[in-house]
Amino acid sequence: MSFFPVGFNPRDPSVGLLDLVSIDTVDGVFRFILGGDGRFVDVDGHAWIGCQLLEAPDLQVSLNGTAPAGSISLTYIPDPSDGDLVVELRALGTEYILDREIVFWVQPIGAMAEFHAPVHAPIRWLTRRGASVAFDLSGPMERRITLNFESIGAGRNTTSRLTNTTSDHAALIGEANSSLRFAPTDTFQEQKLFG
Amino acid sequence: MLRNIIDVPSLFMPWVQVDWRPDWRGQSTMQANDGSEQVVYNRLPRFVGAPQIALPREMAGHWRALILQGQGRVNAYRLRMIDPMTCRRRRADWREDWRAYLAGLYVEVSPQVECPAGAAAGATSIIVDETTAPRPISVGTYLSYDDWPFAVVSRSGSGASVTLGVTMLRKAIPAEAQIDLVARGLFVSTSDANGLPSFERGRPVVGMDLEFVEWITR
Description:
The complex is a heterodimer of chains A (about 200) and B (about 220).
Chain A: E1 14-25, E2 28-34, E3 39-41, E4 47-51, E5 54-55, E6 69-76, H1 85-92, E7 101-109, E8 123-138, E9 142-150, H2 166-173
Parallel strand pairs in A: 2-4
Antiparallel strand pairs in A: 1-2, 1-7, 3-4, 5-6, 6-9, 7-8, 8-9
Chain B: E1 5-7, E2 15-17, E3 21-23, E4 26-27, E5 39-41, E6 46-49, E7 52-56, H1 57-70, E8 76-80, H2 94-102, E9 112-115, E10 125-128, E11 142-145, E12 148-158, E13 161-167, E14 177-180, E15 184-189, E16 205-209, E17 212-214
Parallel strand pairs in B: 1-8
Antiparallel strand pairs in B: 2-7, 3-6, 4-5, 6-17, 7-16, 8-15, 9-14, 10-13, 11-12, 12-13, 15-17
């Protein structure tokens, strides 16, 4: 089974591909062409808007138990006559994207005409979950909005931040168990009288 | 910023040299030692052009007014893709046109043909009614619908039902739509200095090299 659909050969001397990303938010799914321009309408009729300011460096694929994280950033120079995008996004808050899907897609293009009348559906490549939004304001000119995301296994190989107390033990095993109340809570050792 | 469209009448295209062409935007790393090469097309194709024009001095001020409205790379220009290779048009005396333009009476020659059945985006052939055209559409012409230019690669038939093989047909054409025989496209400058030439003493015309790329994110 191939990643690409039947009828598309990625080893052709000339290959057509589009990198797409869809970002799910409270207001619905927004679709972009990563780093390109133009407007692409896929087989389902969804429009993907080209955004040259958008970049997603260091996309990682999960392998060997790593939980790849990453970010999409939008770097731009603010237009004083428009509203302040950073303020608007801060007002929306992290809940706007938290734990919602960010999906990277590959659109195979088999012929030049398929840029405008696609035959293949976009292929789902990476699925990530939104984690946080960060803003970088460098000087008076440049603004960068970074949407950090994580993959599905994020944080599974780290400690669970639970301590040896009755309440944390109950949270861990799912029921109340008072046995840990006898657990020593300090390292005091009685001195030996002889020895 | 909002991008406005500045209409540039064909009067302002007194070309010396034109090279409208589709930019397919292929990218490749490098040719390998054995001469093989893999090209990746991962952007939507667009039209580009670097026309050279020579304006009479009288028109230079109005030209500058048009270009200044463009505000560098902010606004887009609706340009006539006048193409002498396939459309041999008799050039009217520019003074006559210019007087009409100054009086607000300039009417641009913009022949159109009807596309009775329409076509889907990405179609490779369309059927047009050529009876309203001043002359048959020749192969290699650029046509446009709704400011989206495309190219004719073949033709068959005549009169009311001419089948044109086309390429770069990027938008759907509705039934009974009018197709422009002098192609129009929406272009943006590649630099802020585009179209603002220097002036030379004693020259009757103002020559300049322009450079435009099509605005396709719309």
